[in-house]
Amino acid sequence: MTNQLSRRDLARAACAALVLTASGRLGRDARAAGPAQGSQPNAHSWHPGLFPEMIVKSWFQEDLAEGEVPSWQSGGVKPVAAMQAEPSLRPTKLPNNGGVLFKKGTKQALTWPADNDAPYLHRWWLVIARCNSAVNADANNVSVLCVNGAEGGPVHRQPQVCFKPSAGTFVSRLHDGKLKSEEGLCSTDFGDWNVMVGYRRGFVMQAVVNGIKTAGQTIYALAPNRMKSQSFMGDVNNPMRADVAIDCVIIGQSELNDSQIERLMGWGMWRVGRQSALPGDHPYRQSPPSAVDANDKPERYAFDSASWASWAAIGDERYAHRGEAAPPIRAYTTVFFDDFESNSVVDDFTGAQGSIWYAPTHLTTVGVDAATPPISASPSSYVHDATSHTLALRLLHKGRWRTGAFSSVNNNGQGRCWGKGIFEIRARLPKILAPRPGFFPAFWAYGKEHLFWRTRNRLETDFWEYDGLNGAYINISQHVHKPRLGYADPHITPRDVRRKIAGYQVDPSSGFPSTIDVYDGEFHTWYAQIEDDYTYFVIDGYEVARLPTTPELAVKKYIIVDFAYDKKKGRAQPDPSQTYDMVIDYIRVRQTETELARVPTGFSALPAFSGRASPGQALTVVPNVIASQIECLWYRDGVPIVGEIGTSYELSSRDIGHKIRCHVRAVSVLDQPEAWTPESETVG
Asked: From which residue to which does the signal peptide run (predicted)?
C-alpha cells in the first residue's frame, strides 16, 4: 500500500507549528504545549510538516481528546497506532494542552509492534516532554519513549528517551552492542516542557536538549530487532518513577544537517513557549524559524520515466565495439586499492569508521540458497591467504550451504562510496567443468540513498554476474527497485524497472579473439568505467558494452561482492564434502583528475595539507569547509590506512616512497559534500 501524508496528517503537523499570543509569544511559565484545538498556524512559519517524507512516525497531543487514551494514531510515512487495551494502564490526555500524562507508580504505556527497519528509518527524533523531577530527585531512568525495547536485550533502544531526575537531565540512548547515552540539562519543574532533538549522523550520535548540544560519541551499526520486542511510550517494564507528560514525538529518516537541527529545536522551543531558555547565540532565540531554504531540500535521486525509456533507443549500438581493445585509460588516479595484503573484512555490526569491507552485508538474502553467516563463524567463508595476498569467498557446507559476501558500507550505510570512476576487480572462480552447480558470483553496486531514505528507489548496477549454467555468458544490468516504503511522489517509481546492458557469450561469435569462460580456474579482470558522457564495461582488456552514462549509473554507490549459490542456476548438485572458492586478488577504484579537482558546493577550496612529508612528522588537513562534523579517511597511494580517521596523520617509515591523500566529508552540511586533498609530496 502506498503511504502518503493525507490532508489530515499535514493539518496535524501544521497545527503543531507556532501559535503566538497577542503579545507575540506564550508566557515563560506557560504549561500548554500545543495550540488550541482547531487553531491554524501562521502561514509563513516553518514546521516539520512541510517535509512529510522525512517523518516516519509522529504523535501530537492535539490529535487527542481529553481523558483516557486507549489509542494514539501517528502520522508519517510508516504510521502506527500506539495502543493500550487494559483500561487501568491507559495514560490520560490532560486539559489545556497539558500533554499525555503517564502517572508515577503505574505501568501506564502505549505500545506498538517492533520495527525491523528501525536501524535505517530512525535517524533522528524530536521529543517534547516534561517530568515531575523536583519531587522525585532520587529517580533514574524515568521512561518516556523506547523503540524496540519492551523485553530489553542488546539489539533494542532504537532510540530510547528518558529523564534522569537525579542528574536533572533529559537522556537520549541507542544500543549498538553497547548502550550509548547522551544527556543534557533539563528543567526539573513539572510546569516546564523540555525539547530534545536526538540524531545519528555518520559514525556519531548526538542530542540537543533545550538548545544545548551534547558532546556526542561514536555509534556503530544498529542490528535489526530479532526478538520482536515491541515499542512503547511510558513504561511496560517498571512502574513509572515520576509523573511524565508527552507533548509530541517525531521520528524521522535521513541524516539531518545542522540547519535542520537548529530549526527543529527552534520550532519546538517556540511551540512550548520556552524560547527564552535557548542559548543567547541560538539563531531562533529572538524569532522562530520562518522560511524554507535549500537546507530543507536535500538532493535525492529522481526517477525519470522518459530518460529511462530512452535506453531502448540505444539498441545494439552498445555492442558496436565489443570484442575490441578497450579505450585507453587516461588522466585517472587510484583513489582506492585493496590487494588484500591483510584480511580487510570486518564484522558488519562492529566494524569501525576506518574499516574497508563489512561482512556479511545488510542483504540477508544475498547468498540466495546459501546462508551468509557472520565473519566469526567456523569454518569461515572468508579465507585470507597471507602469501598470495588474496581473499577467498568460500562456498561450504555445514548443515546447509554457506558463503561469503562483503560491502564497502556497513548495515547502516557507514563506509566508502563513489560516484563516477573506474570500478575494477581481479578474481578467480573455481575450475570446474559443466554441468556445474548453481554458482552465482557477482561484482555490483547499490546507490547509497536507499539506506537513508526508505521511501526512495534502490538503484542497483550489476557490473557483472555469472551463473553456473554457462561460464562464458556475462550479464550486466541496471535495476531501479521499488522503495522499501511506498510513497506517492512523481520522482519515485512504485514498481521495479530493469534493463539488461549486456547479456551474451564472450566468445568469437561475439567478436572476441577467444572464449572467456570464467570457470577455467584463471584470474580475470573486469571493470566498469563510468565517465561524464559514456560508460564502458570491460573484461580482460576487451570491451563488452558501452552506453551513455545515465543518472542511475552516475549515482554515488557502494561496492558489493558475493559468491552466491542459486539451485536454479546450475545443472548439478554441489558436493557437500568440497569447498568452492571465489578468490579475489584486488579491488580498485579510480577517478579522473578533473573530478578530483572539482571544489564541491560548501567548500571554499579543496582541502589542503599543512606539515612536512617526512617520517615522524604529521600531515594535518585544512578542510576549507565550515562544518561541525567532518569525517576523514586517509590513503597511501590509494590504499586505505585502516584506523586513521582524524584530521592529522603522523607519518612513519612505512610511508617512505609513497604519497598520502585524505578524503574529507562534511557530514553536518547540506548534502554532505566531500572532497580530496591533493596528493602529498613523496614521503622521504
From this structure: none
CB 549 within 8 A of CB 420: yes
Termini Cα distance of the chain: 62
> Is the CB of residue 30 less than 8 Å from the CB of residue 98?
no
> What does the alpha-carbon distance between residue 535 and residue 533 come to, in Å, rounded to a whole number?
7
User: What average pLDDT is seen over the chain?
Assistant: 92
Greatest extent of the chain over all pairs of C-alpha atoms, in Å: 85
Would you state the cell numbers that stand for residue 234, as one nine-digit string? Answer: 511510558
Distance CA 29, CA 193 (A): 10
22-68 confidence digits (pLDDT tens): 222 232 333 344 443 223 345 458 999 999 999 999 999 999 999 99
Report whether 607 contacts 619 (CB < 8 A).
no
CA neighbor of 126 nearest in space, from 59, 198, 193, 184: 198
Specify the pLDDT at position 12.
40
- Here the cell at position 368 is 540466495
Measured distance CA(198)–CA(194) in Å, rounded? 13
Which residue in 168, 166, 199, 173 sits closest to 184, CA to CA? 168
E strand or H helix that includes residue 553: helix 551-554
Residue among 530, 524, 476 nearest 498 (CA)? 476
Cis before 435 (ω within 30): yes
**What is the C-alpha separation between 155 and 224, in angstroms, rounded?**
7
Identify the sign of the CA torsion 310, 311, 315, 321. Answer: positive
- 338: cell is 585493496
Amino acid letter, 408: S
Structural domains of the chain, ranges and CATH numbers in brackets: 45-293 (2.60.120.200), 305-595 (2.60.120.200), 601-676 (2.60.40.2700)
pLDDT, residue 26, reads 30
Question: How many angstroms separate the CA atoms of 272 and 279, rounded?
Answer: 16
Question: Residue 260 belongs to what H/E stretch?
Answer: helix 258-271
Contact of 379 with 577, CB cutoff 8 Å = no
- DSSP summary character for residue 283: T
Q: Which residues contact 156 (CB under 8 A, 6 or more apart)?
A: 146, 147, 148, 149, 175, 225, 227, 229
- Torsion 376-381-386-390 (CA) sign: negative
- CA–CA gap between residue 521 and residue 370 (Å, rounded): 22
List the one residue out of 558, 642, 602, 630 whose CA is nearest residue 201.
Answer: 630
Length of the chain: 684
Strand, coil or helix: what is 219? coil
d(CA 394, CA 360): 12
Q: Is 252 exposed, middle or buried (0-12, 13-18, 19+ CB in 10 A)?
A: buried
CA pair distance 497, 308, nearest whole angstrom: 9
Task: Name the H helices within 272-366.
Answer: 305-309
Cα–chain-centroid distance for residue 573? 38
* Contact (CB, 8 A) for 279 and 286: no
Q: Are strands 497-505 and 439-447 parallel, antiparallel or unpaired?
A: unpaired
Name the E strands within 570-617: 580-592, 608-610
* Contacts of residue 509, Cβ cutoff 8 Å, sequence gap at least 6: none
Q: Number of helices (H) and strands (E) in the chain: give both, helices first.
A: 6, 42
Q: Supply 194's cell numbers.
A: 523540555
SS3 track for 488-500: CCCCCCCCCEEEE
Are 466 and 544 spatial neighbours (Cβ–Cβ below 8 Å)? no
In the predicted model, is pLDDT for residue 123 greater than 70?
Answer: yes
Average pLDDT over residues 420-447: 97
pLDDT category of residue 155 using cuts at 50, 70 and 90: low
Q: Is 683 helix (H, G, I), strand (E, B) or coil?
A: coil
